[in-house]
Amino acid sequence: MARVYNFSAGPATMPLPVLEEIQAELLDYKGSGMSVMEMSHRSKVFQQIADEAEADLRELMGIPDNYKVLFIQGGATLQFSMIPMNLMKNGVADYIVTGAWSKKAATEAKKFGKVNIVATSADKNFSYIPDCSDLAIDDDADYVYICENETIHGTTFQTLPNTKGKILVADQSSMFLSKPCNVSDYGMIYGGVQKNIGPAGLSIVIIREDLIREDIAENTPVYMRYDTHANAGSMYNTPNCWAIYVCGKVFKYLKSIGGLEAMNKINEEKAAILYDFLDNSKMFHGTVEKEFRSLMNVPFVTGDADKDAAVVAATKAAGFDNLKGHKSVGGLRASIYNAMPIEGVKALVDFLKKYEEENA
Ligand SMILES: Cc1ncc(COP(=O)(O)O)c(C=O)c1O
Question: If you measure from the C-alpha of residue 345 to the centroid of ligand 1, how many angstroms do you get, rounded to a whole number?
Answer without folding.
Answer: 24
